[in-house]
Amino acid sequence: MKVLGISGSPRRMGNSELLLDECLKGAESRGAELEKIILADLKITPCLELNVCYDKGECPIKDDMKGLYPKLLEADYVVVSSPIFFYTVTAFTKAFIDRCQALWATKYILKQIPIGGKKRKGIFISVGATRGRRLFEGVKLTMKYFFDAIDAEYSGELLIRGIEKKGEIKKHPTALKDAFMLGKNLVREREVKV
C-alpha cells in the first residue's frame, strides 16, 4: 500500500505539515509505504490551458509536475494538506491541482477509467486562522473535485479552525492524535475491503 502525502504549505513544518506527518505516521503504523512531497520545493507552472491533455492525457509543460503524475497514479492513498489562504488552498496547492487537468482529461475525455489502473482514496487536511463558520466550505468543494479528477474517493478530512502561529497545532487538545488516527483508519479500511 502506497500513501502519497502532499504538503501545500509555503512554511516548512507549519501546522498543516505537522498534521500531515502525523497522518502519515498513522498509515505507516499499518504497514503503508510512504512518500512525502513538499510543493514549495518544486517548480510547478500553473495550467496554461493548452488543451493538449484532451488529445493525449498528458501535459506538455516541462517542469516538476511531470514527476508527480506517476506518483499520483501509483499511490493507493493521496493525502493533501494545505493551510487556508483567503478561504482556499495555497497558490502552491492550487497550481498542483490545476495541473491535474491532464488526469481529468484522461478520465473524462479519453475515458480511461480507472486512471492508473486503480481507484484511489483521498484525504484533505487543513488549518485556518479564523473561526469563521464557512471557512472550509469552498475549499472542500475544490478538494472533492480534485480527488475526483485523479480518480480518488474523498474519504476523509481533518479541518481545524483558529490556528495560526507556527507550531500552535501542538497545543490543540486532539488534533495530532486525530491526524494519526485518520491515517491509521484509512489504511485499515482498505485492508478490510481487500
What can you tell me about this protein's structure?
- The longest helix is centred in the last third of the chain and has 19 residues, at 175-193.
- With 194 residues, the chain is an alpha/beta fold.
- The chain is built from seven helices and five strands.
- α1 (15-28) runs parallel beside α7.
- It has helices spanning 15-28, 53-56, 65-74, 91-98, 101-108, 137-149, 175-193; strands spanning 2-7, 33-38, 77-83, 120-127, 152-160.
- The mean pLDDT is 95.
- The protein has a five-stranded parallel sheet, with helices on both faces.
- The N and C termini lie close together (11 Å).
- It has one domain (2-193): Flavodoxin domain (Rossmann fold), CATH 3.40.50.360.
- β4, α6 (137-149) and β5 form a beta-alpha-beta unit.
Going by CATH, the homologous superfamily would be Flavodoxin domain
N- to C-terminal distance: 11 Å
CATH architecture: 3-Layer(aba) Sandwich
What CATH first level would be assigned?
Alpha Beta
Helices and strands, in order, run as EHEHHEHHEHEH
Total DSSP helices: 7
Tally of domains: 1
Globular, elongated, flat, extended or rod-shaped: what is the shape? Answer: globular
Could you give the topology of this structure?
Elements: E1 2-7, H1 15-28, E2 33-38, H2 53-56, H3 65-74, E3 77-83, H4 91-98, H5 101-108, E4 120-127, H6 137-149, E5 152-160, H7 175-193
Parallel strand pairs: 1-2, 1-3, 3-4, 4-5
Helix pairs in contact: 1-7
Give a quick precis of the structure:
The chain is an alpha/beta fold and 194 residues long. It has one domain (2-193): 3-Layer(aba) Sandwich (Rossmann fold).
